[in-house]
Amino acid sequence: MPERESHSGATLVSSPSHAPVVRGWKDLARLSLGALGVVYGDIGTSPLYALKECFAPGHGVEPTLDNVLGVLSLVFWALTMVVAVKYLVFVLRADNHGEGGILSLLALVTDQGSNPKGRGETGARRRSMLILLGVFGAALLLAEGMITPAISVLGALEGLEVATPLFRPVVVPLAVGILLALFYFQRRGTAGVGAVFGPAMLVWFVAIAAAGLPKVVAHPQVLAAINPVHGLRFFLANGVHGFLILGAVVLCITGAEALYADLGHFGKRPIRLAWFCVPFPALLLNYFGQGSLLLARGSEVRDNPFFELYSGWALYPMVVIATVAAVIASQALISGAYSLMQQAIQLGFWPRLTIVHTSREASGQIYLPEVNWALMVACIALTVGFRGSSALAAAYGIAVVSTMLISTLLLYSVARHLWRWPIWQALPLALLFLTFDVMFLSANVVKFAHGGWVPIVTGLALFTVMTTWKRGRHLLQEQFSASKLPIEVFIADVGRRSAQGKLPRVPGTAVVMTSQLDGTPPVLLHHFKHNKVLHEKVILMTLVTEGIPEVAAAERFDVRELGEGFWEVVARYGFMETPNVPKVLGRCAERGLRVEASKASYFLGRETILPTGRARLAGWRKRLFVYLARNARPANAFFRIPSNRVVELGAQVEL
Fold first, then answer.
1. Which whole-number Å values give the CA distances from 373 to 139, 140, 153, 194, 338, in the listed order?
2. Domain coverage including residue 560
């Protein structure tokens, strides 16, 4: 079985379903520890700012016994219903060959055409709408990725302000410095530091649990918050103010999407075991401990109830531990953004970017420079612009809940049309989850003008780019298909010309890259028309992205001889893989096609796209598509083709 490396640095053995194989309790324990560092980094640092925001002066909720019990009840049931029930029990079931994440869920939605109920015009329209929702959800996740590092690092360093107000002026500069260092070292890969993520986060969870436990023992009445009646009473007593508190409560479940996104790295059992053994009890102890502190000291808790759990000398070490935990949470989101963008490129929703593999053994260890520097600029701009975790909280909540709501809708579609659940089984479950999602989103809408617009505007901008690129490529393919010449006709003509001595065939191999499986590649026609010569061996190479994370090595490629020295090679890749053309050619000898990849000539087409055609696309979107196409990474670099063996032939195409 093939091996690969997780974000935590552990080498995993992939099963045919792409999920790690757990051979015994040692594997389970190791993977569960790794999940602590990658999966639970974001949600694990939520206590830094979540409860503080619930009792912020601007919300008008005083820390009385009823209010504290009400808020703690909302926190408890949010963690239970959204994280434990929705994600761990149901969403994790929607794996795509063992892989998770919103684009994996989107790929499952696009596979619904195999179900008779998913066919026809109605089914196609439904899938189109769900695909647009999924793309927007992916865009929001990228927007969330730029907020997480900023709010996590700021939230950790704000502990210095609790120690003394003298540190207040240095919090933002320190945060900027840490973020600069974090993004600078991304180019070196995360395998080395990833090995310590799990143990470091274990220290974090033990530390926050140890701080909360004594307070809970001193004020055990806070345990009554487990009763949901206290949450209902809180709503009734506080009215609109009580409902709007949900906009802060949602901060305790930020990072829940990571449970699903990192499914392929650890598997269901380790993720579930880790949650119930460490993060869930530790988070509850800390939140309940903060609640006990608020009951004991009330309005005297003026800064941050999290850091005020630590007194005297313990505060400074905790700031250090919190900063390390924030960096780990940020690292997980940054690595997730790389993977998400790689999937978007492979699925045709984003132009080609530079993808650097930072590990020879681990295909999942990647670094995208353009994404890295864009995230760095965005994170630093948010840090300097908002200057505090409280100001960023509004922006964070909307991004998180919007993505969760989209995941619920996609999950319902998968349950109905792929798993074929009856409506009486799928609908009540979806409505239950939507109730939480809609309530949280409604409470956050009022924060739109106070920072909530940031992820929405960013998400819409990314969504526009993704859909424009996808639509533009589709329209170009339609144009090429409409004027294509069947390859059989072209080969027959080549045979006649060769027999008449009118077509020279020069020694060597030409590899013609094409996206058409049944037509003559335009670049080949262009070459034939102008140079009036062909190589002795011509390979038509087509790369296909499948709707699965990885394609098994045995199913990687097919080879077919077409006659007259022509061969067809179709290479298949998953949406989490990066194509490698020379490597595929090197393996073609297994199927009877011998070629020296290093000595072949690779023919690529480079279209100059003009936004002056009659394609069904708005003018501004045509211009955007042209700009994206001009700035996309060259195909030879993306496909790992040696640059000194490439022949590019240009053509003008009106869109």
1. 17, 18, 18, 21, 12
2. 484-654
